[in-house]
Amino acid sequence: MIIYDIKEWMTATYVSFEEFCEDNMNPQQLNDILYKSLFRPRIVCVDGFNMSVQGSYSNYCSPRENVDFYESMEVGMPTHFDDPEFKNNDGMVIGYVSTEDLQKVIMRHGGIDTTKSFKDWNYKNVKKYIRGDKLERILNEK
Questions:
Q1: Among residues 46, 32, 37, 52, which one has the least CA distance to residue 114?
Q2: What angle is formed at CA 115 by the lines to CA 39 and CA 18, rounded to 5 degrees?
Q3: Rounded-to-integer distance, Cα 96 and Cα 99, Å
Q4: DSSP class of residue 42?
Q5: Containing domain of residue 17, as a range?
Q6: Over its length of 142 residues, how does the chain's per-residue pLDDT go in tens digits?
Q7: pTM reported for the whole predicted model
Q8: 80 vs 78: CA distance, rounded Å
Q9: Buried b / exposed e across 73-96, counting CB within 10 Å, b at 16+?
Q10: E-only strand ranges, 1-142
Q11: How many structural domains does the chain have?
């Protein structure tokens, strides 16, 4: 399945961080799961371009909290920085990239390939914290 809308991606991959932490207070388990699955999976586009797009209280995004939709998000380690929307970068991370600019990048690269994007994401660890059924529908359409 191909997703063409960054807002749909954000909503589908939102995890309720507060509930997740309440249930996983073992520090080692929490650390393992946080770094393996709580973050949104890397976006892999149809043409192979990929990037990490994250938003939370600890990312360079707006608002700077854990919500399902952001006005801007942090982009990390894209395949390349050739897209004009990534002109202000430090070689690894670009902060506060607007959703409009993210939409342009995604469309330029053919949309989000959900099969490739979810390939290595450990969904089972976060399934019960995901709100709505949008992600379930996307995963079932692979």
A1: 46
A2: 20
A3: 9
A4: P
A5: 2-140
A6: 677 777 787 777 766 656 666 665 555 555 555 544 457 888 999 999 999 998 887 889 999 887 778 899 999 989 988 888 888 777 788 999 999 999 999 999 999 998 888 776 665 555 555 555 556 666 666 4
A7: 0.73
A8: 5
A9: bbbbebeebebebbeeeeeebbbb
A10: 2-3, 43-44, 50-54, 72-76, 93-98, 112-113
A11: 1
Q: Is 3 helix (H, G, I), strand (E, B) or coil?
A: strand
């192979």: which residue's tokens? 48
CA distance 129 to 32: 16
Measured CA to CA in angstroms, residue 31 lies from 5, 26, 56, 126 at distances of: 30, 9, 16, 13
